[in-house]
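# nightly structure sweep
# worker-07 picked up a monomer target from the shared queue
# config: single-sequence mode, recycle default, output format = structure tokens
# input follows
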Amino acid sequence: MSQMNRRQALQLLAALGTSGLAAGCGSDSDSASAGPGSPIKIGLIAPGIGANKAIGDEITNGFHLFLKLNGERLGGHPVTLVTAEEGENATSGQAAVDRLLKEGVLALTGVVSSAVMLGIRDKVEQARVPLIGSNASPTSLQSVVYIWRTSYVLDEPGRALGKYLHEKLPPTSRVAVIAPDSPGSRDVIDGFRKAYEVNGRRLAGEPILTDDKANPGKGEYVDAIRRALGSRPDVIFCHYAGKAAVRFVKQLYDEGYRGPIYAPGFLTEGSVLGELENESKSIEKYGIETALNYSADLNNTANRVFASAYRKTYFASPTTYAMASYDAAQVLDKALRLVGGTPTSQQVNLALGKIGQIDSPRGPWQFNQPRTPQQTWYLRRVQYDGQLLSNVVVNELATLG
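# output follows
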């Protein structure tokens, strides 16, 4: 049996041993409206092709799971989820919004790419239809009225790790930073530097930026890694995800690095750990620690329901992407219940600001003034949990937002 098949089989067996699915996770001139208890449409913008497809699948799964656990209803209304292809740029994102608005959706959700989110900003604001974004959240997205996000702001994992390493490492430690040349990476690096480079601390040289490729070649990062290792770093801070994360970690060890790796949790989310099984001895000996707002092993009631249901439905452990989309459905459910009667898009938007604390799989959180979560960030260590290489929570890092 292949490594990936073995992981899936073990996850399935673990899921079958947990309690059954729980129901009832909900707690309320204009655009689209609906009568009391009558059907409503929600538009989901997600990539079904291209580099971000895996994340698109996760956010689609998360939203569908909440509907499944709640009788395919939000706030008492039967829901039709209308999907639109996100694409990879502003033009494709705008086309998706246009299509969904023509469908008469009450609200929008999804969006993986920061470029798409920035590209649709004005269109969403002008349409006055709320968008509960479940992934993309660039720091430059500010002063919005109709855009809410259930994920994070992209500088936050860098801020959380920067503060942690500033307190943990000796002042003489040398930290090298390697990341793809992208807006998201710049947000992450800026957050890290603001938290780490205080009281005279400095990085071991300027950050090294690589080409932003979703499926890099076998030697893609060798030159950048050699440049970084030339400064003899004690610690590597990086920002990769998916196939790029797998390639980067393998090439880093192949080039002789024997120190700890720190990164936002995207480095080890999804299928990455299954593809790094052959590197497990190096990972265990030298260490990979990440910061994220969620881990599938969090011990709270909401996560036990969510994680168990996700494993039973999709035969895989949930990620932060699926969790944020699940929460997007949850906040819509709460907002529709607050509105009652005949909801309109603008009434739903107003209600989103009144829903208060969310009982989430990540732990309790609430929207702050910029319409993003005020939430806990966790330090996760890659280690074996039973027979599976996993992200295991070892500490709380900070509350940000």
